[in-house]
Write a structure and sequence with these properties.
It is a single chain. With about 170 residues, the protein is an alpha/beta fold. It folds into two domains: about 35 residues; about 110 residues, 3-Layer(aba) Sandwich (Glutaredoxin). Helix content is about 40%, strand content about 20%. It has a seven-stranded mixed β-sheet, sandwiched between helices. α5 links the parallel β4 and β5.
């Protein structure tokens, strides 16, 4: 095995300067990466979504209609987060949704449950009026509710009783 040669003082200093430059580049890249990751991780705390714009939608794998309703809400300026749990039971229990109103998806908006394809106007009314109740439900088929109020929207009170809120009263 050959003997390693001795470096001159000038060569040794040049190699040290190169190493220091490389370490600086690595350190700068690491700091930029760490700061970027920190901002991304805490983005929602730094720039929270206004409560009156955020809708959390919970749907099952078999639900085929939630996506069209979500698109309609997004077109109206709402920020929608979608969740696909195995079952909707925990979400419905937390939101106190009456079993008689259960469909294939449920949403949470400002602490209220939303069953069915409630139009954006109903959500805006919830945000401005803050009625006493646990949530609202759309009583017409999903295909009619996307663009506006085509059927009655009921407000469900603390006892689970539905009251006419928007549109035709229940008969």
């Amino acid at each position: 095995m050959p003997k390693p040669r001795k470096l001159s003082v000038a060569e040794n200093q040049r190699l040290k300067r190169q190493l220091v430059r490389r370490l600086r580049v690595v350190a700068i890249v690491a700091v930029i990466g760490a700061v970027s990751a920190g901002v991304l991780i805490s983005w929602e705390q730094l720039f929270p979504i206004p409560e009156d714009k955020l809708v959390n939608v919970y749907f099952t794998h078999s639900c085929r209609c939630a996506h069209s309703w979500v698109q309609a809400l997004q077109a109206e300026g709402f920020v929608v987060k979608m969740f696909e749990p195995e079952t909707l039971k925990p979400a419905r229990a937390a939101l106190h949704t009456p079993a008689s109103l259960n469909g294939c998806h449920v949403a949470e908006f400002m602490g209220y449950f939303i069953e069915g394809h409630a139009p954006a106007v109903a959500l805006r009314r919830l945000a401005t009026e803050h009625p006493a109740g646990t949530g609202i439900a759309m009583l017409s088929p999903a295909s009619k509710a996307e663009g506006g109020v085509d059927g009655p929207v009921v407000l469900v009170d603390q006892e689970g009783i539905s009251h006419a809120w928007i549109g035709e009263p229940q008969r």
